[in-house]
Amino acid sequence: MNLHLGNISIPARGIVGLFDLDAITVEKTTRDTLNRAQAEGTLTDCCVGELPRSLVLTDSVYYLAAPNTSTLRKRML
Q1: Domain limits of the chain?
Q2: pLDDT digits (tens, 9 = 90+) for 8-60
Q3: pTM (two decimals)
Q4: Which residues of 47-59 are buried (b: 16+ CB within 10 A; e: fewer)?
Q5: What is d(CA 62, CA 35) in angstroms, rounded to the nearest whole number?
Q6: Which of 27, 42, 46, 74 suits 14 as a labelling partner, its CA being 20 to 30 A distant?
């Protein structure tokens, strides 16, 4: 099963976590991690002209997605 994030789909079995972007970016360490991922090229923006609302974490890539985490969880069921 694949999870549709916006302009791409990823295998659902490879997902480590789904996170609300507003809730997790409060911490400086999280912002630093996302900045480092962007610099390393492991941060993929899947938002097509929309604001990112969630972060999908896999074992090797961070994905910014427009749908909120509850919508993504429902898509995985």
Answers
A1: 2-76
A2: 999 999 999 999 999 999 999 999 999 999 999 999 999 888 999 999 999 99
A3: 0.90
A4: beeeebbbbbebe
A5: 11
A6: 27
